[in-house]
Write a structure and sequence with these properties.
heterotrimer; A mainly alpha (281); B mainly alpha (538); C alpha+beta (185); B: 538 residues; mainly alpha; Cytochrome C Oxidase, Chain A; two-stranded antiparallel sheet; 17 helices; 4 strands; C: 185 residues; alpha+beta; Immunoglobulin-like; 3-stranded mixed β-sheet; 1 helix; 18% helix
Amino acid sequence: MTMSQSHERTPSDPHVLDQPWRLWATVAVMSTVLMGILLGVVVIPVVQGRGAGLDAFTAICRALGLLPGSPAQPQPLDRTPPTPVSQVVWTPDVLQILARADIAKGRAKVQEVCIACHGEAGVSPSPDFPHLAGQSGAAIYKQLHDYRTGSRVHPQMTDVAKALDESTIPDVAAYYAGQPQRNLNPVTLAESPRAIVNLIELGDPSRNIPPCAACHRAGAGGPIEAPVLAEQHAEYLIQQLKLYASGQRRNDVYARMRLIASRLIEEEMKGLAAYYRAGFR
Amino acid sequence: MRNVDRLCLAHFWVAFGAFLFACLIGTWQMWVRSPLGANIGTPGQYFMSVTAHGVSMAYVLTTFFIMGFGYFVAVTALNRPLPGRLWAWAAFWIALLGVVVTIIPIGLGKASVLFTFYPPLTASAWFYIGLVLVVAGSWIWCVLMLVAMSAWKREHPGQPVPLAMFATVANAVMWLWTTIGVAVQLVFQVIPAALGLVQTIDVGLARTLFSWTLHAIVYFWLIPAYIAFYTMVPRAAGGRLYSDTMGRLTFILFLIYSLPVGMHHLLMDPQHGNAMKFVQVLLTAFVAVPTLLTIFTITASLEIAGRLRGGRGLFGWIAALPWERPMVLATGLGFVMLGFGGFGGIINMGYGMNAMVHNTSWVTAHFHLIFGGSVVIMYFAIAYEIWPRLTGRDHMSLAPLRMQLWLWFVGMMVMTLPWHWLGLQGQWRRVANFNYADPIIAGWGPWVVVSLVGGFVLLISALLFVRNLAVLHRGTVVAVPRALYAVAVHPPKRVPAALNGFGLWNVLVLVLMVLAYGFPIAQFLIEPSPSAIVHRVR
Amino acid sequence: MSDARHEVDERWILRTELLWAFGVGVFIAAALGMILFTALTISVNPPSNVERIDPKALHLSGEFAEHNLGTTVSGDGTVIVRAIATQFMFVPQCIAVPANRRVTLRFASPDVIHGLLITGTNVNTMVIPGFVAQVHTEFTRTGDLLMPCHEYCGQGHSEMWATVQVLPENRFKPGSDGRVSCAQR
């Protein structure tokens, strides 16, 4: 007796019960997904492509994302030349450079160049020159580069920045970023005006103004170059807001500060500056 | 008899504790963004709350409930002690540690990235590590479910696995498949970015990997409710399950078709073309099938019960059903919510209509109704049903249970129906405060307040739910042993291996995932998207 | 049917389940058929434009540099809108478009995930850093529409929105450089 004869298959044998299931389940599932692929990858793009004057191959490539554009519409072409002004780009390399900055070299350069206006500890004697103590290293880095390229213009800083060696800029930025903030001449606000606190914490949706804290508070997850505003000279902050509002200062990427500043009224600028001057973050 | 009572109770109390907490802060969220709460609460607080609410409801309530329920089913449906009980406790502690590790950064404001994490917004690494621990605990649970079923099959060769356990293991298998997406995203992309090991992230790939998990996870949450429908409701109603085979098929269809459809969460995304979007939409249509089949099978089962109790005429059996029993009441209310929510889901699937509702309040309304509504109400019913068996104490009266279920239903409808309407009008999501001075937005204000009222009703219901369970721990009425699981009209004597195991289905799932997700993921490996700088939320 | 009969025959069960399943199949086929039909006849599609662009250098790029944003009418009459979605503003904040003409809208993000919709229209897209999001549409009604950011992008998300001014044909006049700005009110 052969092995196959001794293992006769009965109808209730699980293997026999199972075969039609294995077969038909596979057929059903495969036909659904293959039908989906046939329709989605071939039929729909080709038919749509005909309406847009595209050949089948292009239409299918577009539908699969191998070429840009929709299989159903012509794709606009753009030939605008890239902007010639070089500006700061936050790439991983730049962030690495900032992270590896040499603070000792930065101190040396500061004592040589920056100390007169910005102070050795980053505390400036005059509201014409901003405090830099505890300022965001990325913010200082960007402003120095923008002075060099002309994206931001200042009678003194433009020349100072151009004279700096490219490699010392991250060091200077890191040095000042590491300086502790010391609130010289602290001012206590008699009261925190509700309207100002609301602007900082809640923004103003009716004017498209996001909360200042959404970008300027550390750890908010906003733009990398957003500067720290706490304990800054109030007059300096007001001056910068006015420069943004008039469009004279244009190095905010995509005009965000220009748009916001142009919607603030004078009282608000003063109130915000006083609030930050008093050290609130 | 059972060696898992304390294990189940531990899981359930973590789940329901997180649930109550999430209901509290959810109500706060609704108040703050309504016209009544203008200028109260900062965006920082709001988005911290949204993150905590989402994590508690979507990851803690669900995972812990499902694990606890799974252990209960493995012991009671298979009538044998749980194998590897020490592993089960280890899984519990690992997952609970994960919850603690996650909730701390959220509370410190270092993790306001919402429960769907939006890279390149990157939270503290501990937030993600905690969630990985929760998933790790749940993987141990999956293995224990598979081991329990295999051990039973060895002791009962050729016999059909009890439906409740078959469905639980289908759920476990599906969970193992679906967590691959988020696990890869977290381990290889997001956690390295959060730890500062990399400064950029491929957002297109991250979103695609997350979408892999995003659909099947909701079926992971939903299947326990369906387990109750098939294996508990017919018994509670006093009838029989219309078709055991249909039950098995339903869970198998969920396993196959809930996985390769995640891209329908990315229909409006620019990193995929419409070819693969269509393929996954077509497969999405098939995941609607098991729900539609279930509605028939369970309604038929209820009809049997109704007629057995003397109901006459075309609809007379409906009134004859024992609606005073929480399990039956919850099913009725759940089916109504399932109807509305499921209909909304079909709309989301059609991408022409999806374009009208994507990221509006319609989406929020949809998942609160279908998950918070029809699924969670069955979680309540399951808890009410098995708590006496776990504590040995019975409910003194069923009236507070019914009251709680009705409050949940009414609250959910009042909260979500206006949200659907607002979504159609364009009200968008994740807003801490609206500008109610704008004329368009001002018109939405009254509906937002109506929703808020619904939210308060839900909070009351949640408090009552916890009370109804807590009192049993010091209850005086001794629980009378009763049968739990339903019997089919024609209990199967033999089922094909395809309906008794997952070998064939795993192969088909693999094929489907390769066909549906192979190219969409491979495209990022062949040509990575230009990466985006990480934005740290610290 | 006898009401006293509570024993249901196995074949009856199978038949009713299959009948219902057939009905379900018809429903599913109808839903898919509608999607397929609209895709083939009037090109109803989810946005389908897979176009990679480096988000880190977006402000240096040709197309999405600040001076090139807004509405442009090219030589052959196609209307293209280019806008940036960034934390926490759309740039430009007001976009002028013509009524009853095909418009192509192109969006990019230099930082995080954003999303947008235009109320009362079928414009709805995510804006993912690394990709250009493109939608084609036709605005049918004149007036001011709201274009909010609808995806969580950080703490300023709630204040991020733009206005879309749909201008009738006679008020939609491109300048010599082909650009159209919002009418000042």
